[in-house]
Amino acid sequence: MTLSAREVRPSIAEVDAxxxxxxVAALGSAVEHSPxxxxxxxxxxxxxxxxxxxxAFESAISGAPxxxxxxxxxxxxxxxxxxxxxxxxxxxxxxxxRVARLDRLSPGELAALTRLxxxxxxxxxxxxxxxxxxxxxxxxxxxxxxxxxxxxxxEAATALAxxxxxxxxxxxxxxxxxx
Length: 179
What we know:
This protein has 179 residues and is mainly α. Helix content is 60%, strand content 0%. Helix 2 crosses helix 3 (36-42) and helix 3 crosses helix 4 (50-62). It is globular, with a radius of gyration of 17 Å. Mean pLDDT is 94; it is low at 1-6.
């Protein structure tokens, strides 16, 4: 994320001092369409570091009932899917997909990713989720195909681990250094 001279990221000390409403407003976007996670993470303050802040978010997710975790997964957009085509991605997802070149796919790549998205969603009931900052288009397609062979519980755990990676990177974008 590129910050302009006017945008100032709060320090971890400032995050620790936030009331719940301010905290959710400032950090709720770290988890796609699921500000409840920030509300739960807030209860675990003070954090003292961005790493512990991330752990609080991950603990809020892992401590949620199974159906709530599945709702969180279902809240994620498909990679280069309908939301992207309609311009309906959140700012964070739009930036991540753009950096991963998902907005500039060749027709063959788009067809392969569209097919992967459909097969994955039909098999698991939630979108294919990957921390795209860690992948090329080719590695996303290969990894997605490999993940189709997994069992539902294993794949839900992998998708949640990917959400954890995404959340960690987003929190580092939203919060200033640990000082």
